[in-house]
Amino acid sequence: MKIIKTIFIVILIMILIIVSCVIYAFKIEPYRVKINEQVYKTGDRTSNVKIAQFSDVHIKEDFTSQNFSKVVDKINSKNPDIVVFTGDLYDNYSTYSEDESLKDELERINAEYKFAVWGNRDYGGGASNAYEKLMYESGFKILKNETEILDINGKKIMITGIDDSMLGNPYIEKSSENADIKILLSHEPDVVDNYVEYGYNLALSGHSHGGQIDIPFVPDVNRIALSKTAMNDKYTAGMYTIDESTGQKIYVNTGIGTTHVSARFGVVPEVTLFDIWM
């Protein structure tokens, strides 16, 4: 009798743990947001610039501009010099959109320079016209195979954004421009290998969501989740060295929102703050 009772209690505890994890994954973690701070050093390191990156917002019925407001607050709390968005604003524009309230939140992001690139979702579902208009009206410049040269704190910063690699037409020429740091923005991470010879110090990307689900000691779940998205097999989350000889790196932001399944577990939505010393 005691054995049966013990088994029953163990089963009950397991059920409670599973239910609690499911509730957390669908109702709690997707609405959290953390600041992931990275220090990047190059050159003589006499001056610094702060760059905040956010990615893959995937606005939809269960993650609205009201939820996104918390992300904006996090970004503004760090007073960045530059803010970059690496694509996928809406999840599916044809099924859910709220342009005006979303524009208000994007406009509220406070930085001297604001840049964005195209993601695959920014083209799909009739989103392209709305995305371009929204970003422009909220103070973002979309870099579509374009480069901007900035002078901040006496340092020259080159930022290049390429078009989406799935639904767009990415193409840039190698630049002979000298800069204290050269940054490449690309929605999909794996394609940055095509630009190693272009001399970018740091690439910033998104797209992968880090798989959204990362259960400790069960890595196959994360691998399966990542396989649902193309062009993120090699670089999936966090910082990687692209080329050991040059020190070129890529950071893959795991995003804000969700897609396919409205859940996150072990992959908390993030804003990345880069403190870059040149």
UniProtKB/TrEMBL annotation:
GO terms of biological process kind: lipid A biosynthetic process
Bilayer-crossing regions: 7-26
Keyword terms, alphabetized: Membrane, Transmembrane, Transmembrane helix
Domain of life: Bacteria
Record-annotated Calcineurin-like phosphoesterase domain positions: 50-210
GO molecular function list: UDP-2,3-diacylglucosamine hydrolase activity
GO cellular component: membrane
Classification via InterPro entries: Calcineurin-like_PHP (IPR004843), Metallo-depent_PP-like (IPR029052), Metallophosphoesterase_sf (IPR051158)
Protein's recorded name: Metallophosphoesterase
